Amino acid sequence: MILTVERLNGEKYVLNEELGLICSDFFYDSPSPITETSTRPGVDGFNDLGTTYDGRTLYARFYLVGANNYHYAMLRHQVFKLFDSREEFYIYSDEESRKRWRVKCASSYAINRIAGPLGEFEVPFISKSPYAESLGTLQQDFTFAEDVWAFAQNIPLKTPLKI
Protein backbone atom coordinates (compact mmCIF):
# COMPACT_ATOMS: atom_id res chain seq x y z
CA MET A 1 0.00 0.00 0.00
CA ILE A 2 1.25 3.46 -0.86
CA LEU A 3 0.20 6.47 1.18
CA THR A 4 0.54 10.05 -0.05
CA VAL A 5 0.84 13.14 2.14
CA GLU A 6 -0.03 16.42 0.45
CA ARG A 7 0.64 19.72 2.17
CA LEU A 8 -1.82 22.59 1.70
CA ASN A 9 0.77 24.34 -0.48
CA GLY A 10 0.59 21.39 -2.93
CA GLU A 11 3.86 19.74 -1.90
CA LYS A 12 3.43 15.93 -2.15
CA TYR A 13 5.27 13.10 -0.45
CA VAL A 14 4.66 9.59 -1.75
CA LEU A 15 5.47 7.33 1.18
CA ASN A 16 7.07 4.26 -0.33
CA GLU A 17 10.16 2.10 -0.07
CA GLU A 18 12.31 4.72 -1.81
CA LEU A 19 11.73 7.01 1.19
CA GLY A 20 12.34 4.16 3.62
CA LEU A 21 8.67 3.90 4.61
CA ILE A 22 6.44 0.93 3.96
CA CYS A 23 2.77 1.46 4.79
CA SER A 24 1.29 -1.82 5.97
CA ASP A 25 -2.20 -0.51 6.74
CA PHE A 26 -4.37 2.61 6.52
CA PHE A 27 -7.79 2.54 8.15
CA TYR A 28 -10.31 4.77 9.88
CA ASP A 29 -13.07 4.56 12.47
CA SER A 30 -16.73 4.50 11.55
CA PRO A 31 -18.65 7.79 11.78
CA SER A 32 -19.39 8.72 15.38
CA PRO A 33 -23.00 9.91 15.78
CA ILE A 34 -23.88 12.68 18.22
CA THR A 35 -27.60 12.68 18.96
CA GLU A 36 -29.08 15.70 20.70
CA THR A 37 -32.10 15.04 22.90
CA SER A 38 -34.38 16.90 25.29
CA THR A 39 -36.66 15.75 28.06
CA ARG A 40 -39.75 17.18 29.70
CA PRO A 41 -40.57 16.75 33.36
CA GLY A 42 -43.31 14.22 33.94
CA VAL A 43 -43.07 12.72 30.41
CA ASP A 44 -41.47 9.37 29.75
CA GLY A 45 -38.76 9.15 27.12
CA PHE A 46 -37.07 11.97 25.29
CA ASN A 47 -37.34 14.05 22.16
CA ASP A 48 -34.86 13.37 19.38
CA LEU A 49 -33.55 16.75 18.18
CA GLY A 50 -31.36 15.31 15.46
CA THR A 51 -28.07 13.60 14.87
CA THR A 52 -24.79 14.94 13.55
CA TYR A 53 -21.42 13.25 13.14
CA ASP A 54 -18.23 14.01 14.99
CA GLY A 55 -14.84 14.15 13.22
CA ARG A 56 -13.04 10.92 12.31
CA THR A 57 -9.91 9.22 13.58
CA LEU A 58 -7.64 7.59 11.02
CA TYR A 59 -4.58 5.39 11.50
CA ALA A 60 -1.59 4.49 9.38
CA ARG A 61 0.89 1.70 10.23
CA PHE A 62 4.40 1.86 8.84
CA TYR A 63 7.71 0.10 8.75
CA LEU A 64 10.74 2.39 8.77
CA VAL A 65 13.63 0.85 6.85
CA GLY A 66 17.07 2.43 6.99
CA ALA A 67 20.22 1.36 5.17
CA ASN A 68 22.12 1.40 8.49
CA ASN A 69 21.65 2.75 12.03
CA TYR A 70 22.68 6.30 11.06
CA HIS A 71 20.27 6.33 8.13
CA TYR A 72 17.53 4.97 10.42
CA ALA A 73 18.04 7.87 12.86
CA MET A 74 17.90 10.40 10.00
CA LEU A 75 14.69 8.84 8.64
CA ARG A 76 13.11 8.92 12.09
CA HIS A 77 13.60 12.70 12.28
CA GLN A 78 12.21 13.13 8.76
CA VAL A 79 9.09 11.18 9.78
CA PHE A 80 8.59 13.49 12.78
CA LYS A 81 8.90 16.50 10.46
CA LEU A 82 6.61 14.98 7.82
CA PHE A 83 3.73 14.47 10.25
CA ASP A 84 4.22 17.81 12.06
CA SER A 85 0.71 18.96 12.87
CA ARG A 86 0.94 22.67 13.25
CA GLU A 87 -1.02 22.83 10.02
CA GLU A 88 -3.43 20.40 8.42
CA PHE A 89 -2.47 18.27 5.44
CA TYR A 90 -4.14 15.78 3.13
CA ILE A 91 -3.55 12.06 3.28
CA TYR A 92 -4.77 9.37 0.90
CA SER A 93 -3.92 5.82 -0.10
CA ASP A 94 -3.55 4.17 -3.49
CA GLU A 95 -6.53 1.95 -2.58
CA GLU A 96 -8.85 4.98 -2.58
CA SER A 97 -6.73 7.38 -4.59
CA ARG A 98 -9.58 9.73 -5.50
CA LYS A 99 -10.62 10.38 -1.88
CA ARG A 100 -8.48 12.37 0.50
CA TRP A 101 -8.73 13.26 4.15
CA ARG A 102 -7.77 16.64 5.60
CA VAL A 103 -6.03 15.70 8.84
CA LYS A 104 -3.62 16.55 11.60
CA CYS A 105 -1.61 14.14 13.71
CA ALA A 106 -3.86 13.30 16.68
CA SER A 107 -1.22 12.52 19.30
CA SER A 108 2.36 11.49 19.84
CA TYR A 109 3.66 8.20 18.47
CA ALA A 110 6.78 6.15 18.99
CA ILE A 111 8.90 4.48 16.35
CA ASN A 112 9.81 1.13 17.88
CA ARG A 113 13.01 -0.45 16.65
CA ILE A 114 12.48 -4.08 15.69
CA ALA A 115 16.04 -5.00 14.73
CA GLY A 116 18.99 -3.01 13.43
CA PRO A 117 17.78 -0.25 11.08
CA LEU A 118 14.18 -1.52 11.00
CA GLY A 119 11.34 -0.01 13.02
CA GLU A 120 7.57 0.04 13.13
CA PHE A 121 5.05 2.65 14.21
CA GLU A 122 1.41 3.69 13.97
CA VAL A 123 0.38 7.31 13.47
CA PRO A 124 -3.08 8.43 14.62
CA PHE A 125 -4.68 11.23 12.58
CA ILE A 126 -7.77 13.28 13.28
CA SER A 127 -10.06 14.87 10.73
CA LYS A 128 -12.45 17.60 11.82
CA SER A 129 -14.87 16.34 9.17
CA PRO A 130 -16.54 12.93 9.24
CA TYR A 131 -16.19 12.80 5.44
CA ALA A 132 -13.33 12.39 3.02
CA GLU A 133 -13.29 14.84 0.15
CA SER A 134 -13.06 14.15 -3.53
CA LEU A 135 -10.12 15.14 -5.66
CA GLY A 136 -12.67 16.35 -8.21
CA THR A 137 -14.54 19.64 -8.11
CA LEU A 138 -17.81 20.73 -9.62
CA GLN A 139 -15.79 22.56 -12.26
CA GLN A 140 -14.73 19.21 -13.75
CA ASP A 141 -16.77 16.89 -15.94
CA PHE A 142 -18.29 13.82 -14.32
CA THR A 143 -16.24 11.44 -16.46
CA PHE A 144 -13.62 8.84 -15.69
CA ALA A 145 -11.40 10.64 -18.20
CA GLU A 146 -10.92 13.35 -15.56
CA ASP A 147 -9.24 10.71 -13.32
CA VAL A 148 -10.65 12.33 -10.16
CA TRP A 149 -13.95 10.47 -9.74
CA ALA A 150 -14.73 7.03 -8.37
CA PHE A 151 -17.83 5.08 -7.47
CA ALA A 152 -19.54 5.86 -4.14
CA GLN A 153 -18.66 9.56 -4.27
CA ASN A 154 -22.23 10.88 -4.37
CA ILE A 155 -22.05 11.97 -7.99
CA PRO A 156 -25.40 13.58 -8.89
CA LEU A 157 -27.77 11.14 -10.57
CA LYS A 158 -29.06 13.89 -12.89
CA THR A 159 -25.71 13.81 -14.64
CA PRO A 160 -24.91 10.31 -15.90
CA LEU A 161 -21.34 9.19 -15.42
CA LYS A 162 -19.66 8.64 -18.77
CA ILE A 163 -17.07 5.92 -19.21
Radius of gyration: 20 Å
Task: Count helical runs.
Answer: 1
> Helix coverage percent of residues?
under 10%
In the predicted model, the low-confidence regions spanning at least 5 consecutive residues are none
List strands and helices in order, with pairings.
Blueprint: E1 3-7, E2 12-15, E3 21-28, E4 33-38, E5 47-53, E6 56-65, H1 69-82, E7 89-93, E8 99-105, E9 112-115, E10 118-127, E11 133-134
Antiparallel strand pairs: 1-2, 1-7, 3-6, 4-5, 6-10, 7-8, 8-10, 8-11, 9-10
Describe this structure in words.
This protein has 163 residues and is mainly beta. Helices cover 9% and strands 42% of the residues. The protein has one helix at residues 69-82; strands at residues 3-7, 12-15, 21-28, 33-38, 47-53, 56-65, 89-93, 99-105, 112-115, 118-127, 133-134. The strands form 2 sheets. Strands 1, 2, 3, 6, 7, 8, 9, 10 and 11 form a 9-stranded antiparallel beta sheet that branches. It starts with a strand and ends in a 29-residue tail after the last strand.
